From TrEMBL:
Keywords: Lyase, Metal-binding. CDD domains: CbiX_SirB_N. It comes from Paractinoplanes globisporus. This is Sirohydrochlorin chelatase. Coiled coil: none annotated.
């Protein structure tokens, strides 16, 4: 039986976003054909991680999420509780994502790092860490303040002529589409479209194997 890499995405109603996540997972599977690479979700789509975990053995869970928050601490943690299945760190913050954002940013007077939004302190801290590395202003597409459109408008008032949004979002969806209505001059593509992200997913998987092996010694 093949070892399992169980990827866990948030889930989206966007057909484009669904396809992008499936394509990312398929790219991971092509790179490591000796693995049983499966996809599950914490919200919106099926199958949910709690339904998949009982059917897998010798598995590692890799959250296809950019920051740790409720879905990691509660949804994923509850799904694997008592199973011994390790859960890797989230995909972000990471230099792979930083390089992807930087490659896709045009010349601009100001950059806004636009994330989904969360009240979770750890989630917000990791988002600010990425923004600091990118030398960008932090804004959120949903929930938390400051909102992306408000930050863009404030930068315009302060004299910025060209504003770029660095989309700190993995796939297309409602949040990503709002960025194109926020008044900036450009928006970077969803991160999962970058081929290097598949390598990052595998690096997270391999790091969990090393940690587990070290713990057994």
């Amino acid at each position: 039986m093949k070892p399992t890499l169980l990827a866990v995405a948030h889930g989206t109603r966007s057909a484009a976003g669904q396809r992008q996540i499936r394509d990312l997972v398929a790219a991971v599977a092509r790179r490591r054909p000796e693995l049983d690479v499966r996809l599950s979700y914490v919200d919106v789509q099926q199958p949910r991680i709690g339904d998949v975990v009982p059917a897998v053995r010798d598995a590692v869970v890799v959250p296809l999420l950019l920051s740790a928050g409720y879905h990691v601490r509660v949804d994923i943690a509850n799904a694997v509780e008592g199973t011994g299945i390790p859960v890797t760190g989230t995909l972000g913050p990471d230099e792979v994502l930083l390089r992807s954002l930087t490659r896709n940013l045009p010349a601009a007077d100001a950059v806004v790092l636009a994330a989904a939004g969360s009240s979770d302190p750890a989630w917000r801290e990791s988002t600010h860490e990425m923004a600091s590395k990118l030398q960008a202003h932090v804004a959120y597409a949903s929930g938390s303040a400051p909102k992306v459109a408000d930050v863009v408008a404030d930068l315009r008032r302060r004299g910025a002529r060209r504003i770029a949004i660095a989309a700190y979002l993995l796939a297309d969806g409602l949040f990503y589409r709002t960025l194109h209505r926020a008044g900036a001059d450009s928006v970077t593509p969803p991160l999962c479209l970058d081929p290097t992200v598949a390598g990052l997913v595998l690096r997270r998987y391999e790091s969990a194997l090393l940690t587990t092996a070290a713990g057994r010694l």
